[in-house]
Amino acid sequence: MPETHALLMNSAGYIALEDEYGAKNYHPLDVVLTRGQGIWVWDVEGKRYLDCLSAYSAVNQGHCHPRIVQAMIEQAQRLSIVSRAFRNDQLGGFYKEICELTKSHMVLPMNSGAEAVESVIKAVRKWGYTVKGIPHGMAEIIVCQNNFHGRTITIISFSTEKQYRDGYEPFTPGFKVIPFGDADALESAITPNTVAFLVEPIQGEGGVIVPPDGYLRKVREICDKYNIVLVTDEIQTGLGRTGRLFAEEHEGIEADVTLIGKALSGGLYPISAVLSNKEVLGVFHPGDHGSTYGGNPLACAVARAALKVLIEEKMIENAATVGPYFMEQLRGIKSQYVKEVRGKGLLIGVELHKEAGGARHFCAKLKDKGILCKETHEHVIRFAPPLVIRKEDIDWALEQISDVLAH
Ligand SMILES: *Cc1c(COP(=O)(O)O)cnc(C)c1O
Protein backbone atom coordinates (compact mmCIF):
# COMPACT_ATOMS: atom_id res chain seq x y z
CA MET A 1 0.00 0.00 0.00
CA PRO A 2 1.38 3.49 -0.82
CA GLU A 3 2.57 5.51 2.18
CA THR A 4 -0.05 8.24 1.64
CA HIS A 5 -2.90 5.78 2.23
CA ALA A 6 -1.42 4.86 5.58
CA LEU A 7 -1.27 8.51 6.59
CA LEU A 8 -4.96 8.99 5.88
CA MET A 9 -6.08 6.14 8.11
CA ASN A 10 -7.72 6.55 11.49
CA SER A 11 -7.42 4.17 14.44
CA ALA A 12 -10.10 1.86 13.10
CA GLY A 13 -8.17 1.46 9.85
CA TYR A 14 -4.94 0.47 11.59
CA ILE A 15 -6.78 -1.90 13.90
CA ALA A 16 -8.49 -3.56 10.93
CA LEU A 17 -5.08 -4.07 9.26
CA GLU A 18 -3.57 -5.64 12.38
CA ASP A 19 -6.56 -7.89 12.81
CA GLU A 20 -6.54 -9.01 9.20
CA TYR A 21 -2.88 -9.98 8.91
CA GLY A 22 -1.44 -10.44 12.39
CA ALA A 23 -1.21 -13.50 14.62
CA LYS A 24 -3.66 -13.02 17.48
CA ASN A 25 -1.27 -13.75 20.35
CA TYR A 26 -2.01 -10.36 21.96
CA HIS A 27 -5.26 -8.66 22.98
CA PRO A 28 -4.23 -4.98 23.01
CA LEU A 29 -6.37 -2.07 24.09
CA ASP A 30 -7.67 -0.32 20.98
CA VAL A 31 -5.36 2.67 21.00
CA VAL A 32 -3.08 3.20 18.00
CA LEU A 33 0.03 5.09 19.07
CA THR A 34 2.23 7.03 16.73
CA ARG A 35 4.54 9.23 18.82
CA GLY A 36 6.12 9.31 22.27
CA GLN A 37 8.10 11.76 24.38
CA GLY A 38 9.06 11.23 28.01
CA ILE A 39 6.05 9.92 29.93
CA TRP A 40 3.60 10.80 27.13
CA VAL A 41 2.42 9.00 23.99
CA TRP A 42 0.02 10.21 21.28
CA ASP A 43 -2.45 8.25 19.19
CA VAL A 44 -3.09 8.73 15.46
CA GLU A 45 -6.01 11.08 16.22
CA GLY A 46 -3.66 13.29 18.25
CA LYS A 47 -4.96 12.38 21.71
CA ARG A 48 -2.30 12.37 24.44
CA TYR A 49 -1.92 9.63 27.05
CA LEU A 50 0.22 9.16 30.14
CA ASP A 51 2.05 5.85 29.65
CA CYS A 52 1.70 3.89 32.88
CA LEU A 53 3.06 0.63 31.46
CA SER A 54 6.38 1.84 30.02
CA ALA A 55 6.41 -1.15 27.64
CA TYR A 56 6.64 -3.48 30.64
CA SER A 57 9.51 -1.30 31.99
CA ALA A 58 11.50 -1.11 28.75
CA VAL A 59 11.20 2.70 28.69
CA ASN A 60 12.21 3.56 32.25
CA GLN A 61 14.16 6.51 30.80
CA GLY A 62 11.04 7.85 29.03
CA HIS A 63 10.05 7.61 25.37
CA CYS A 64 12.57 8.67 22.73
CA HIS A 65 15.06 10.07 25.23
CA PRO A 66 17.04 12.58 23.12
CA ARG A 67 20.50 11.52 24.41
CA ILE A 68 19.82 7.83 23.73
CA VAL A 69 18.29 8.63 20.33
CA GLN A 70 21.38 10.71 19.47
CA ALA A 71 23.76 7.91 20.49
CA MET A 72 21.75 5.49 18.39
CA ILE A 73 21.79 7.73 15.31
CA GLU A 74 25.54 8.38 15.58
CA GLN A 75 26.39 4.72 15.99
CA ALA A 76 23.95 3.63 13.26
CA GLN A 77 25.72 5.96 10.83
CA ARG A 78 29.13 4.56 11.78
CA LEU A 79 28.80 0.79 12.30
CA SER A 80 25.89 -1.42 13.33
CA ILE A 81 27.05 -5.00 13.41
CA VAL A 82 30.07 -7.09 12.53
CA SER A 83 29.13 -10.25 14.48
CA ARG A 84 31.25 -11.63 17.28
CA ALA A 85 33.55 -13.24 14.72
CA PHE A 86 35.39 -9.90 15.00
CA ARG A 87 35.80 -7.41 17.81
CA ASN A 88 34.25 -3.95 17.87
CA ASP A 89 35.14 -0.70 19.61
CA GLN A 90 31.90 -0.42 21.62
CA LEU A 91 31.84 -3.80 23.33
CA GLY A 92 34.75 -3.37 25.77
CA GLY A 93 33.51 0.03 26.95
CA PHE A 94 30.02 -1.38 27.45
CA TYR A 95 31.44 -4.32 29.45
CA LYS A 96 33.56 -2.10 31.67
CA GLU A 97 30.82 0.45 32.33
CA ILE A 98 28.13 -2.09 33.14
CA CYS A 99 30.41 -4.21 35.33
CA GLU A 100 31.58 -1.18 37.30
CA LEU A 101 28.03 0.10 37.70
CA THR A 102 26.62 -3.25 38.85
CA LYS A 103 29.74 -4.59 40.62
CA SER A 104 29.83 -7.62 38.33
CA HIS A 105 32.92 -9.46 37.16
CA MET A 106 31.69 -10.68 33.80
CA VAL A 107 28.92 -9.98 31.35
CA LEU A 108 27.28 -11.89 28.50
CA PRO A 109 25.33 -9.68 26.08
CA MET A 110 22.20 -11.10 24.45
CA ASN A 111 19.08 -9.60 22.85
CA SER A 112 15.77 -10.44 24.51
CA GLY A 113 15.03 -11.11 28.15
CA ALA A 114 14.10 -14.70 27.39
CA GLU A 115 17.52 -15.22 25.77
CA ALA A 116 19.25 -13.99 28.92
CA VAL A 117 17.22 -16.53 30.92
CA GLU A 118 18.02 -19.31 28.44
CA SER A 119 21.69 -18.38 28.60
CA VAL A 120 21.85 -18.55 32.37
CA ILE A 121 20.11 -21.92 32.36
CA LYS A 122 22.88 -23.22 30.11
CA ALA A 123 25.58 -21.60 32.24
CA VAL A 124 24.39 -22.92 35.62
CA ARG A 125 23.87 -26.44 34.26
CA LYS A 126 27.39 -26.44 32.88
CA TRP A 127 28.67 -24.97 36.16
CA GLY A 128 26.91 -27.82 37.98
CA TYR A 129 28.68 -30.48 35.93
CA THR A 130 32.11 -28.90 35.58
CA VAL A 131 32.52 -27.07 38.90
CA LYS A 132 30.10 -28.55 41.44
CA GLY A 133 30.58 -32.13 40.17
CA ILE A 134 26.95 -33.14 39.64
CA PRO A 135 26.42 -36.35 37.60
CA HIS A 136 25.90 -35.57 33.93
CA GLY A 137 22.28 -34.89 32.90
CA MET A 138 21.01 -34.64 36.50
CA ALA A 139 21.16 -30.87 37.16
CA GLU A 140 18.08 -29.38 38.81
CA ILE A 141 17.07 -25.72 38.86
CA ILE A 142 14.55 -24.48 41.42
CA VAL A 143 12.04 -21.81 40.37
CA CYS A 144 8.91 -20.22 41.88
CA GLN A 145 5.21 -20.64 41.35
CA ASN A 146 3.61 -17.74 39.48
CA ASN A 147 6.97 -16.88 37.86
CA PHE A 148 7.45 -15.04 34.60
CA HIS A 149 10.78 -15.47 32.83
CA GLY A 150 9.77 -15.37 29.15
CA ARG A 151 8.10 -17.42 26.45
CA THR A 152 10.52 -19.97 24.99
CA ILE A 153 9.77 -23.68 25.24
CA THR A 154 12.28 -24.26 28.03
CA ILE A 155 11.09 -21.25 30.02
CA ILE A 156 7.40 -22.09 29.76
CA SER A 157 8.32 -25.65 30.77
CA PHE A 158 8.61 -24.30 34.32
CA SER A 159 5.79 -21.78 34.14
CA THR A 160 2.75 -22.43 36.34
CA GLU A 161 0.46 -20.41 34.09
CA LYS A 162 -1.82 -22.82 32.25
CA GLN A 163 -2.26 -20.63 29.17
CA TYR A 164 1.49 -20.17 28.71
CA ARG A 165 1.92 -23.97 28.45
CA ASP A 166 -1.23 -25.46 26.95
CA GLY A 167 -0.59 -27.13 23.62
CA TYR A 168 3.20 -26.69 23.66
CA GLU A 169 4.22 -30.08 25.04
CA PRO A 170 6.68 -31.84 25.29
CA PHE A 171 8.49 -29.72 27.87
CA THR A 172 12.11 -29.41 29.00
CA PRO A 173 12.84 -31.37 32.19
CA GLY A 174 15.13 -30.38 35.06
CA PHE A 175 13.05 -27.80 36.97
CA LYS A 176 11.41 -27.91 40.37
CA VAL A 177 8.70 -25.40 41.35
CA ILE A 178 8.26 -24.08 44.90
CA PRO A 179 6.01 -21.36 46.41
CA PHE A 180 7.27 -17.77 46.01
CA GLY A 181 8.26 -15.95 49.19
CA ASP A 182 8.85 -19.11 51.21
CA ALA A 183 12.54 -19.61 52.06
CA ASP A 184 11.87 -22.84 53.99
CA ALA A 185 10.34 -24.32 50.83
CA LEU A 186 13.61 -23.56 49.04
CA GLU A 187 15.68 -25.34 51.66
CA SER A 188 13.38 -28.40 51.55
CA ALA A 189 13.51 -28.61 47.76
CA ILE A 190 17.30 -28.69 47.52
CA THR A 191 18.97 -31.97 46.60
CA PRO A 192 22.63 -32.80 45.89
CA ASN A 193 21.80 -32.17 42.21
CA THR A 194 20.47 -28.64 42.66
CA VAL A 195 22.54 -26.12 40.72
CA ALA A 196 20.58 -22.89 40.94
CA PHE A 197 17.61 -20.97 42.27
CA LEU A 198 16.03 -18.59 39.73
CA VAL A 199 13.78 -15.90 41.24
CA GLU A 200 12.26 -12.48 40.56
CA PRO A 201 12.76 -10.09 43.52
CA ILE A 202 9.19 -8.91 42.90
CA GLN A 203 6.93 -10.90 40.59
CA GLY A 204 5.92 -8.32 37.98
CA GLU A 205 3.80 -10.23 35.47
CA GLY A 206 2.56 -12.41 38.32
CA GLY A 207 0.60 -9.42 39.65
CA VAL A 208 3.25 -7.25 41.38
CA ILE A 209 3.76 -9.75 44.19
CA VAL A 210 6.18 -8.47 46.84
CA PRO A 211 7.71 -11.26 48.99
CA PRO A 212 7.94 -10.93 52.78
CA ASP A 213 10.75 -8.76 54.20
CA GLY A 214 13.91 -10.76 54.68
CA TYR A 215 13.01 -13.35 52.03
CA LEU A 216 15.95 -12.64 49.71
CA ARG A 217 18.37 -12.44 52.65
CA LYS A 218 17.31 -15.94 53.77
CA VAL A 219 17.48 -17.18 50.19
CA ARG A 220 21.03 -15.78 49.92
CA GLU A 221 22.08 -17.67 53.11
CA ILE A 222 20.53 -20.93 51.92
CA CYS A 223 22.21 -20.71 48.51
CA ASP A 224 25.56 -20.10 50.23
CA LYS A 225 25.03 -23.01 52.62
CA TYR A 226 24.31 -25.53 49.84
CA ASN A 227 26.59 -24.05 47.16
CA ILE A 228 23.76 -23.11 44.84
CA VAL A 229 23.88 -20.30 42.29
CA LEU A 230 21.40 -17.55 43.16
CA VAL A 231 20.04 -16.02 39.95
CA THR A 232 17.83 -12.93 40.23
CA ASP A 233 15.73 -12.07 37.20
CA GLU A 234 15.76 -8.26 37.33
CA ILE A 235 14.62 -7.85 33.74
CA GLN A 236 11.54 -5.97 34.99
CA THR A 237 12.52 -4.91 38.53
CA GLY A 238 16.05 -3.78 37.64
CA LEU A 239 17.53 -0.52 36.35
CA GLY A 240 15.76 1.77 38.76
CA ARG A 241 12.18 0.57 38.55
CA THR A 242 11.83 -0.06 42.30
CA GLY A 243 13.85 2.98 43.40
CA ARG A 244 17.20 1.17 43.53
CA LEU A 245 19.44 0.09 40.65
CA PHE A 246 18.41 -3.50 41.44
CA ALA A 247 15.46 -4.58 43.58
CA GLU A 248 17.72 -7.04 45.44
CA GLU A 249 19.51 -4.02 46.97
CA HIS A 250 16.44 -3.38 49.15
CA GLU A 251 17.49 -6.52 51.04
CA GLY A 252 21.18 -5.70 50.91
CA ILE A 253 22.09 -8.86 49.04
CA GLU A 254 24.02 -9.61 45.88
CA ALA A 255 22.98 -12.47 43.64
CA ASP A 256 25.63 -14.59 41.93
CA VAL A 257 23.98 -13.85 38.61
CA THR A 258 21.60 -11.02 37.73
CA LEU A 259 19.61 -10.83 34.50
CA ILE A 260 18.70 -7.52 32.91
CA GLY A 261 16.97 -6.52 29.69
CA LYS A 262 14.07 -4.21 28.88
CA ALA A 263 15.30 -0.76 30.10
CA LEU A 264 18.92 -1.62 29.30
CA SER A 265 18.32 0.17 25.99
CA GLY A 266 15.79 2.72 27.22
CA GLY A 267 13.32 1.11 24.85
CA LEU A 268 15.29 1.78 21.67
CA TYR A 269 16.72 -1.62 20.89
CA PRO A 270 16.38 -5.19 22.15
CA ILE A 271 19.37 -5.84 24.39
CA SER A 272 19.72 -8.02 27.47
CA ALA A 273 22.62 -9.16 29.60
CA VAL A 274 23.68 -11.84 32.03
CA LEU A 275 25.76 -10.25 34.81
CA SER A 276 27.78 -12.67 36.84
CA ASN A 277 30.76 -13.54 38.94
CA LYS A 278 33.70 -15.16 37.13
CA GLU A 279 32.82 -18.65 38.31
CA VAL A 280 29.46 -19.01 36.52
CA LEU A 281 30.00 -17.21 33.20
CA GLY A 282 33.55 -18.56 33.28
CA VAL A 283 32.19 -21.96 32.19
CA PHE A 284 31.68 -20.72 28.64
CA HIS A 285 34.52 -21.35 26.21
CA PRO A 286 34.68 -20.28 22.55
CA GLY A 287 31.84 -21.92 20.63
CA ASP A 288 29.81 -22.99 23.69
CA HIS A 289 27.15 -20.33 23.22
CA GLY A 290 26.43 -17.39 20.94
CA SER A 291 24.13 -14.91 19.27
CA THR A 292 24.49 -13.13 15.92
CA TYR A 293 23.19 -9.79 17.21
CA GLY A 294 24.41 -10.18 20.80
CA GLY A 295 26.92 -7.45 21.70
CA ASN A 296 26.73 -5.62 18.38
CA PRO A 297 28.14 -2.07 18.42
CA LEU A 298 24.76 -0.43 17.84
CA ALA A 299 23.26 -2.27 20.83
CA CYS A 300 26.28 -1.44 22.98
CA ALA A 301 26.23 2.27 22.09
CA VAL A 302 22.52 2.47 22.88
CA ALA A 303 22.91 0.60 26.18
CA ARG A 304 25.85 2.79 27.24
CA ALA A 305 23.76 5.93 26.63
CA ALA A 306 20.70 4.41 28.33
CA LEU A 307 22.70 3.56 31.48
CA LYS A 308 24.36 6.97 31.48
CA VAL A 309 21.09 8.94 31.41
CA LEU A 310 19.53 6.65 34.02
CA ILE A 311 22.34 7.54 36.43
CA GLU A 312 23.23 11.11 35.43
CA GLU A 313 19.64 12.31 35.29
CA LYS A 314 18.94 10.77 38.70
CA MET A 315 16.00 8.70 37.52
CA ILE A 316 16.51 6.03 40.17
CA GLU A 317 16.39 8.64 42.95
CA ASN A 318 13.24 10.07 41.37
CA ALA A 319 11.57 6.64 41.39
CA ALA A 320 12.49 6.30 45.07
CA THR A 321 10.88 9.67 45.85
CA VAL A 322 7.75 9.80 43.72
CA GLY A 323 7.01 6.04 43.81
CA PRO A 324 6.06 5.93 47.51
CA TYR A 325 4.05 9.14 47.07
CA PHE A 326 2.09 7.59 44.18
CA MET A 327 1.46 4.41 46.17
CA GLU A 328 0.37 6.27 49.30
CA GLN A 329 -2.06 8.43 47.32
CA LEU A 330 -3.47 5.36 45.55
CA ARG A 331 -4.05 3.78 48.96
CA GLY A 332 -5.97 6.89 49.95
CA ILE A 333 -8.52 6.52 47.13
CA LYS A 334 -11.86 5.42 48.55
CA SER A 335 -13.12 2.66 46.31
CA GLN A 336 -15.30 -0.38 46.85
CA TYR A 337 -13.33 -2.20 44.14
CA VAL A 338 -9.80 -2.00 45.56
CA LYS A 339 -8.54 -4.91 47.63
CA GLU A 340 -4.88 -3.95 47.99
CA VAL A 341 -2.26 -1.51 46.71
CA ARG A 342 1.29 -2.86 46.77
CA GLY A 343 4.69 -2.56 45.15
CA LYS A 344 8.01 -0.80 45.43
CA GLY A 345 9.25 2.41 43.84
CA LEU A 346 7.41 2.91 40.56
CA LEU A 347 6.29 -0.71 40.22
CA ILE A 348 2.81 -0.57 41.69
CA GLY A 349 -0.06 -3.04 41.56
CA VAL A 350 -3.66 -2.26 42.47
CA GLU A 351 -5.47 -5.51 43.13
CA LEU A 352 -9.24 -5.39 42.69
CA HIS A 353 -11.85 -7.56 44.35
CA LYS A 354 -13.10 -10.41 42.15
CA GLU A 355 -16.59 -8.84 42.24
CA ALA A 356 -15.21 -5.81 40.38
CA GLY A 357 -15.39 -7.94 37.24
CA GLY A 358 -11.71 -7.93 36.21
CA ALA A 359 -9.14 -5.18 35.78
CA ARG A 360 -9.46 -4.94 32.02
CA HIS A 361 -12.57 -2.79 31.83
CA PHE A 362 -10.98 -0.39 34.34
CA CYS A 363 -7.97 -0.15 32.02
CA ALA A 364 -10.33 0.62 29.13
CA LYS A 365 -11.93 3.43 31.18
CA LEU A 366 -8.52 4.77 32.20
CA LYS A 367 -7.57 4.81 28.52
CA ASP A 368 -10.58 7.03 27.78
CA LYS A 369 -9.33 9.37 30.52
CA GLY A 370 -5.85 9.52 29.01
CA ILE A 371 -3.99 6.93 31.07
CA LEU A 372 -2.54 3.79 29.53
CA CYS A 373 -2.10 0.75 31.70
CA LYS A 374 -2.59 -2.95 31.35
CA GLU A 375 -4.20 -5.51 33.58
CA THR A 376 -1.93 -8.26 34.81
CA HIS A 377 -3.31 -11.50 36.18
CA GLU A 378 -6.91 -10.50 35.54
CA HIS A 379 -7.54 -8.60 38.77
CA VAL A 380 -4.46 -6.37 39.07
CA ILE A 381 -3.88 -2.98 37.43
CA ARG A 382 -0.15 -2.26 37.17
CA PHE A 383 1.05 1.34 37.35
CA ALA A 384 4.64 1.59 36.14
CA PRO A 385 5.23 4.94 34.41
CA PRO A 386 8.65 5.99 33.08
CA LEU A 387 10.97 6.93 35.96
CA VAL A 388 11.07 10.57 34.79
CA ILE A 389 7.50 11.19 35.98
CA ARG A 390 7.09 14.23 38.25
CA LYS A 391 4.83 14.70 41.27
CA GLU A 392 2.50 17.05 39.36
CA ASP A 393 2.03 14.44 36.61
CA ILE A 394 1.19 11.88 39.29
CA ASP A 395 -1.34 14.26 40.82
CA TRP A 396 -3.05 14.59 37.44
CA ALA A 397 -3.01 10.80 37.02
CA LEU A 398 -4.50 10.34 40.49
CA GLU A 399 -7.48 12.54 39.61
CA GLN A 400 -8.25 10.33 36.61
CA ILE A 401 -7.62 7.10 38.51
CA SER A 402 -9.81 8.06 41.45
CA ASP A 403 -12.62 9.03 39.05
CA VAL A 404 -12.47 5.57 37.50
CA LEU A 405 -12.03 3.60 40.71
CA ALA A 406 -14.66 5.48 42.69
CA HIS A 407 -17.51 4.76 40.25
C1 LIG B 1 9.76 -9.35 30.32
C2 LIG B 1 10.42 -10.34 31.21
C3 LIG B 1 11.19 -11.40 30.70
C4 LIG B 1 11.27 -11.71 29.22
O1 LIG B 1 11.80 -10.69 28.45
P1 LIG B 1 11.53 -10.68 26.86
O2 LIG B 1 12.41 -9.57 26.37
O3 LIG B 1 10.08 -10.41 26.65
O4 LIG B 1 11.94 -12.01 26.35
C5 LIG B 1 11.84 -12.21 31.60
N1 LIG B 1 11.74 -12.01 32.93
C6 LIG B 1 11.01 -11.01 33.45
C7 LIG B 1 10.95 -10.85 34.93
C8 LIG B 1 10.31 -10.15 32.63
O5 LIG B 1 9.54 -9.19 33.15
Report on this model:
The protein has 407 residues and is α/β, with parallel strands linked by helices. The chain has 2 domains: 2-61 and 314-406, Aspartate Aminotransferase, domain 1 (Alpha-Beta Complex); 66-312, Aspartate Aminotransferase, domain 2 (3-Layer(aba) Sandwich). It contains 15 helices and 15 strands. The protein has helices spanning 3-8, 11-21, 54-57, 66-78, 91-102, 113-132, 153-157, 162-165, 183-189, 215-225, 278-281, 297-312, 315-331, 360-368, 391-406; strands at residues 33-37, 40-43, 48-51, 106-110, 140-144, 175-178, 194-199, 229-233, 257-260, 272-276, 338-344, 347-352, 371-372, 374-376, 380-383. The strands form 3 sheets. The protein has a 7-stranded mixed beta sheet with strand order 4-10-9-8-7-5-6, with helices on both faces. The chain has a 4-stranded mixed beta sheet with strand order 1-2-3-13. A 4-stranded antiparallel beta sheet has the order 11-12-15-14, covered by helices on one side. The model has no long low-confidence stretch (mean pLDDT 96). Pyridoxal-5'-phosphate (PLP) binds at residues 56, 112-114, 117, 148-150, 200, 204-205, 233, 235-236, 261. Pyridoxal-5'-phosphate binds next to helix 6.
Summary tags:
407 residues; alpha/beta; Aspartate Aminotransferase, domain 1; Aspartate Aminotransferase, domain 2; 2 domains; 7-stranded mixed sheet; 15 helices; 15 strands; 17% strand; globular; binds pyridoxal-5'-phosphate
